[in-house]
Design brief:
265 residues, two-stranded antiparallel sheet, 7 strands, 15% strand, globular
């Protein structure tokens, strides 16, 4: 049996009871999957539980216990988001369920769009629908891979102790500028391990176990210049960059501009 662990940050007991009842109904009808919910009422307790616990999802009100004013200028749910996004908090599914969604700080608004991982839900939305969306996101395995105690965490531990620790004198000799190189080194080991049958989530042969969406970086990383495989617009057309990386390395010319015009030829 699998369990989805949910932290609900909500100071109104009636709202918490609505979700508790919906979760009990779901659990009564399922034996292979259960939802466990824990409630806290303020930002301080929420951050404390996120630091010490292991959760798959966060149901977050923005205006919480002890907040003053109209909930627009003082909404401590933003403090919880600051911890998650900027303070080394856990990676988890987040649903903002608030009667004052306009109190979401502007720095966070771009993150909450139509993504099933980061959503703003109306406070009166049917609880069963909210839970169903959360369950569908959880079923992808995203929190089991990238969560605080997920597969990625375990694989990085293995790489650190079983691989990086061997031959580390070469890195000591290099002495400076190691961090980016070590990140690439770790990433290469991750790719090797993910190709092992025991690390794939099905029994498909390696050549059929890939999903086309995994090769798209959305949104693209803005490096200031195109890279191999990227889609670029030029005049009225849309093009795929096929030039190899060695031909796309930015080269400064006398004017100080980067000579990348050949990308579009």
């Amino acid at each position: 049996m699998h369990t989805i662990n949910v932290l609900m940050v909500e100071d109104e007991q009636a709202q918490h009871d609505l979700y508790t009842d919906a979760i009990e109904d779901f659990n009564d009808g399922h034996t292979d999957l259960q939802i466990e919910i824990e409630q806290v009422k303020n930002a301080e307790d929420a951050i404390s539980r996120l630091e010490s616990g292991s959760f798959d999802a966060l149901l977050l009100d923005l205006r919480l216990e002890n907040d003053s004013g109209d909930g627009l200028n003082v909404a401590s749910g933003n403090e919880v988001l600051k911890y998650v996004f900027d303070g080394g908090g856990p990676r988890l599914i987040i649903n903002i369920i608030s009667g004052t969604p306009e109190s979401l700080e502007s720095d966070f608004k771009a993150r909450f769009s139509s993504s099933p991982l980061l959503m703003i839900q109306p406070r009166d939305k049917d609880t069963a629908e909210v839970l169903e969306g959360l369950i569908q996101a959880w079923k992808t395995g995203i929190t089991r891979i990238l969560g605080r105690r997920g597969r990625l965490h375990s694989l990085i531990n293995k790489i650190f102790f079983d691989h990086v620790s061997h031959g580390f004198e070469f890195w000591i000799d290099k002495n400076v500028g190691c961090e980016d190189a070590l990140l690439r080194y770790t990433a290469l080991h991750l790719l090797e391990y993910l190709d092992l049958p025991e690390n794939r989530d099905d029994d498909s042969p390696l050549e059929t176990s890939y999903f086309e969406a995994e090769f798209y970086i959305i949104p693209p990383v803005d490096k200031g210049h195109p890279s191999t495989g990227e889609l670029v617009t030029y005049e009225d057309g849309l093009y795929v960059v096929l030039s190899p990386s060695c031909d796309l390395e930015p080269r400064h010319i006398k004017s100080g501009n980067e000579a990348l015009e050949t990308v579009y030829n």
